[in-house]
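BUG: 3D viewer hangs when loading the predicted structure for this chain

Environment: internal workstation, default settings.
Expected: structure renders.
Actual: progress bar stalls at 90%.

Input used:
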Amino acid sequence: MISIVPATPDLVRSYYGKEAPWTFRGYVALDGDKPVGLAGVYREGVHLIAFFDAGPTLRASKRVAVEGRRLLRKLMDEAGRPVFAKMNASEPTAPALLRRAGFVPLKDDILVRMPNA
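Structure tokens produced before the viewer hung:
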């Protein structure tokens, strides 16, 4: 069964095979003790950027998707300011995932989520 836990440096390293490219607050989805997805928010300059990185194991679980989205929304609401995301056009689930997380189009493939949206 897949569980969601707060991200730690060790779990992120286990998922990516190296250190994360940025410091972030977020969550890791675990299938047993193996990381199968990551989601969170990182800072780029003055902006907050949301990200979601999942493999097929995680995409197959609707329960985990709902729980992960709830936790990510809470994290973004706690930020108290707009959070941006860039849609990956090659990911077929991206439009629905971003819409359900409260993001709206801003420009081209950039979306924004206002606090408490």
